[in-house]
Design a protein that fits this description.
alpha+beta; eight-stranded mixed β-sheet
Length: about 425
């Protein structure tokens, strides 16, 4: 007897990447739409860049020793030998596009809005995925502090417009090339005393990029960080002035912020302003504590890291899934729920064809309708109407299809009337008002 072929296992999705289905799609679309709407009000234009970029576009500005470059990037090599990377972020691609498409010759600054998927090989956990979506902003070509405040304003306004009111901004300044070296030296001196108590990653950071010591989430390193030197004590006059202006703008706009003296960002290109946006620490979503809804900062040195002339910039990104997840936890619906007040029942081949025409006419005037167009049984369709508690049933049988009429049945009273097809649309609007 021949051996049975091995049972084939169902092919499933890639670990850390997930399908988005049904209502979840509406949540993500709602978040992106709100950020875009607010960005367009402030004069931002859309940009779309490729998912695949040359690997050096990220390894240069993000830092060869950054966690993203060392551990999280999805790299591949083409048959021609090119090293490519699935984009882990959008700021570097936006800056590349700025030069590649001659945006430096446009009126400055250039304000760009984007949304899309990004990829990092992180450990999958709550609100962290290996493919994730962001809606972000970039203001390129101007170093005025008001731009920093505008980016924060748009993110705060967008999040609040989505029903999440208790927003607070954590903010800091990382200084610039003038004042940061002195701070770096003092930081090394401090951490050298505690070197043996650092985690494995921080011992490496100590040698390669000391500022990232302040970004460690390990409990033991958090304790050491509490007494570490503060960048605020080392800011040069220009950086003090710039940061002071940013805070003044936030004060003027009534945006709540917390001065986080140890806040740094994970990429080498950041300088001066850096920020992260959270819900208030008193909010009940404990499992989302410590997860920023949006973050960003200033990157005046990014263009030079990419091999171009210096062009200042500031921007940030909002985590679309994170905001959507918080909306769900707070029972905030992605859009007003529109329940159909009519169900289309069709019986027979001619009626099925005619029903397609009728549904399109209703769509044109914005009238939602439920249906089960693949069903042929009157009873099965009436059962669906009853379960959905829809007040009106539109009935198209063979007779109605041939006569050019539509039957309209009130499901509560059982009363049915017949309307001519050509007068149906005007009449049905009046009927629907009875159930609003």
């Amino acid at each position: 007897m021949p051996a049975k072929p091995p049972k084939k296992e169902l092919v499933t999705s890639v670990k850390g990447m997930h399908d988005i289905i049904f209502e979840d799609v509406h949540y993500l679309e709602r978040v992106i739409k709100e950020v875009r709407r607010t960005a367009e009000f402030y004069g931002f234009s859309p940009i779309m860049t490729p998912h695949l970029e040359k690997a050096e576009l990220f390894s240069r500005p993000l830092g060869e020793t950054s966690d993203v470059v060392e551990k999280q990037m999805y790299n591949l090599r083409t048959r021609g030998g090119d090293r490519l990377t699935l984009r882990p972020e959008e700021t570097a691609p936006a800056m590349r596009a700025y030069f590649e498409h001659g945006m430096q010759s446009m009126p400055q600054p250039v304000k760009l809005f984007y949304s899309g998927s990004f990829f990092r090989h992180e450990s999958p956990q709550a609100s962290r995925f290996r493919e994730f979506r962001q809606a972000g902003l970039e203001i390129i070509g101007d170093e005025d502090a008001i731009n920093d405040a505008v980016v924060v304003r748009i993110f705060v306004s967008s999040i609040q417009a989505l029903g999440i009111r208790d927003v607070v901004v954590n903010i800091n300044s990382l200084g610039d090339k003038t004042c940061r070296p002195a701070f770096r030296k003092e930081l090394l001196t401090y951490y050298k005393k505690h070197f043996n108590d650092l985690c494995k990653d921080c011992k490496r950071r100590f040698k390669e990029n000391p500022l990232r010591l302040l970004d460690c989430k390990e409990p033991a390193c958090q304790v050491i960080k509490k007494d570490a030197p503060q960048m605020m004590d080392f800011l040069c006059e220009a950086c003090k002035k710039h940061f002071g202006e940013v805070l003044e703008y936030l004060d003027e706009m009534g945006i709540a912020y917390f001065l986080d003296i140890h806040l740094v960002r994970g990429f080498d290109y950041y300088g001066r302003t850096v920020f992260e946006i959270f819900t208030d620490k008193a909010s009940p979503e404990i499992e989302m504590a410590g997860i920023a809804l949006a973050s960003g900062g200033r990157y005046d040195d990014l263009a030079e890291l990419l091999g171009a002339r210096r062009v200042p910039g500031v921007g940030g990104a909002l985590g679309v899934e994170r905001v959507a997840e918080l909306m769900k936890k707070r029972n905030i619906k992605p859009r007003p729920e529109v329940k159909p007040k009519m169900f289309l029942i069709q019986l027979g081949p001619a009626a099925k064809k005619k029903s397609l025409v009728l549904m399109e006419e209703l769509r044109k005037i914005g009238v939602p309708i439920a249906h089960s167009i693949s069903k042929d049984s009157l009873r099965s369709q009436l059962n669906i109407v009853s379960k959905l508690r829809i007040p009106l049933a539109l009935i198209l049988g063979q007779k109605e299809a041939l006569d050019g009429t539509v039957g309209v049945r009130n499901m509560d009273s059982g009363i049915q009337e017949t309307l001519p097809f050509d007068k149906f649309i005007g009449t049905i609007k009046a009927r629907l008002k009875e159930f609003s």
